[in-house]
């Protein structure tokens, strides 16, 4: 019975604060991706890098979710229509504007979470940004 009450309270909280749903989701999705990647690297339960999993959880829940929430709010205000044409426009603008900023933040923030210096984080962005963007960029 207590779990039912907790579930109802969680649902009510998420309805009241929609950003919380994304924060909960991304704080689970990102570390799951890290675990999958580590599994492909040959690691198993006993030797997963749990600090890495934690960093991905913090990044997903505390950075990705709020920035995506903000981007969706802004893009929906700029292009309120839901047609295919406007969807393509939103995707193109996102590829040009949001994606480079998100990739830069990922490399920079994750470097800082790994206890690297600001200079090392900047170097990490410089080393990885362009190769990643060239692979990702579908346009």
UniProtKB/TrEMBL annotation:
The chain crosses the membrane at residues 53-72. It comes from the Eukaryota. Keywords: Membrane, Transmembrane, Transmembrane helix. It is a multi-pass membrane protein. One of its GO terms (cellular component) is membrane. Its main location: membrane. It is found in: Membrane. Belongs to the peroxisomal membrane protein PXMP2/4 family. PANTHER family: IP10007P-RELATED, PEROXISOMAL MEMBRANE PROTEIN 2, PXMP2 MPV17. This is Uncharacterized protein.
């Amino acid at each position: 019975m207590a779990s039912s009450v907790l579930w109802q309270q969680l649902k009510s909280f998420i309805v009241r604060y929609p950003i919380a749903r994304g924060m909960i989701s991304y704080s689970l999705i990102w570390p799951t991706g890290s675990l999958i990647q580590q599994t492909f690297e040959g690691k198993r339960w006993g030797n997963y890098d749990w600090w890495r999993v934690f960093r991905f959880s913090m990044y997903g829940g505390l950075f990705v979710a709020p920035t995506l929430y903000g981007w969706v709010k802004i893009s929906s205000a700029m292009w309120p229509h839901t047609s295919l044409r406007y969807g393509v426009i939103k995707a193109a603008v996102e590829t040009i504007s949001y994606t480079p900023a998100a990739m830069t933040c990922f490399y920079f923030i994750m470097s800082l979470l790994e206890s690297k210096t600001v200079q090392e984080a900047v170097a990490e962005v410089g080393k990885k940004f362009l190769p990643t963007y060239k692979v990702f960029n579908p346009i």
